[in-house]
Structures are given as structure tokens and as C-alpha cells.
Amino acid sequence: MAPVLNVLDDQARARLIRRFGEGVTTWCDDLPALVARLSERWGLTVVDAKPGNTGRTLICVGDDGAMKVL
């Protein structure tokens, strides 16, 4: 599995925990591996992560060279 850049920074993680409680920490910990698995399955390479409030937009390049967004 290809490494995936930091898809969830510390500030976003803190916002998620404040909003949803400590139970979301496991999901936060597992998110990079999930993104890596799905990127591999869908033929994507994540090249950037754009911040949001409690979300992320992942900028990717597909196997076909086209820009994609998750």
C-alpha cells in the first residue's frame, strides 16, 4: 500500500473530538490507512489535502493522469 500524506491534521482531529467525543479517536487513527486502501483500489495517488471544518478534500491523480477529488 502506498503511503498517504497526512489526511487529518491535529487541528481537524481536535475539532472532530470536540464535536463527536473521544470515541472518534479510533476513526481518526484509522483514516490514513482507509484512504490508502481506497486510493490503491481506485488507482489514485493523493497529492494534497485541503482543510475544511471537520472534513477534508483530497486532491488526487488517477492512473490515467487526470486530476481527481475525494
TrEMBL record:
Single GO molecular-function term? transferase activity
Q: Which UniProt keywords apply?
A: Transferase
Q: From the Swiss-Prot or TrEMBL record, give the protein name.
A: Aminoglycoside phosphotransferase
Q: Could you tell me which species this protein originates from?
A: Amycolatopsis thailandensis
Q: Mind giving the lineage of the organism this protein is from?
A: Bacteria, Bacillati, Actinomycetota, Actinomycetes, Pseudonocardiales
